[in-house]
Design goal:
By secondary structure, the chain is mainly β. The chain is built from no helices and 18 strands. It has strands at residues 5-9, 14-15, 27-32, 35-40, 47-50, 55-56, 62-65, 68-74, 97-102, 108-114, 117-122, 128-129, 141-146, 149-154, 161-164, 169-170, 176-179, 182-185. Strand 7 and strand 8 form a beta hairpin. It is elongated.
């Protein structure tokens, strides 16, 4: 960085011109208290940080793994009718969350309910699998549901698990950002 701020996007200081999933200005890199930080300032496709350790994912939060974009939603409890029974459908077995697959163009795809405890994601095995996505590892990540909270951890995947940024985020040396289809590696040099 030659200044205290750089932008990234189709028209940014760091140009990402051949990616249809990047906005004219998608991200802003800046110094905050002497540390490098980034924030999403652009289009609806977001800026995603590769997980180095377990992180909490809140409702409305998004993950990217392989070519999958997934958003976390709450599962509302089934309300009993006046007689105390549910009026129709399957019984409520207590699922609290579901992941919704977001397809190209922003349409909703498959929905995956998450059980209490560990929910593995992978190409070859797990409660959630994407057998045709070669960028998802055989066993890629685990989603741990405990009461009304959910944590995400990469389990040694080749291509990483990414969490969408929801605000300004401090970056460290070796961090990876996924912006559209572009993977950026952060190198923080000495003063």
């Amino acid at each position: 960085m030659g200044s205290d701020e750089l932008t990234c996007g189709i028209l940014g200081d760091i140009p990402l011109v051949d990616d249809p999933f990047v906005a004219p200005t998608q991200a802003r890199f800046f110094l905050a208290s002497g540390k490098l930080a980034v924030e999403d300032v652009g289009g609806g496709n977001g800026v995603f940080l590769r997980l180095r350790d377990e992180r909490e994912l809140t409702t409305g939060g998004e993950l990217r793994l392989g070519r999958q974009r997934l958003v976390l939603e709450p599962v509302p409890p089934v309300s009993p009718g006046p007689d105390g029974a549910t009026s129709w459908g399957s019984p409520d077995i207590g699922h609290r969350f579901r992941l919704i697959q977001i397809l190209e163009g922003g349409t909703r795809g498959a929905a995956f309910v998450l059980k209490d405890g560990e929910n593995f994601v992978g190409r070859e095995s797990g409660e959630i699998s994407f057998p045709t996505d070669a960028f998802v590892s055989g066993r890629h990540a685990v989603l741990q549901v405990h009461q009304d909270r959910l944590w995400v951890r990469d389990v040694g995947s080749s291509n990483g698990t990414f969490l969408r940024l929801s605000g300004p985020t401090e970056l460290g040396d070796g961090d990876h950002l996924l912006i559209g289809r572009e993977l950026l590696r952060i190198e923080v040099g000495g003063q």
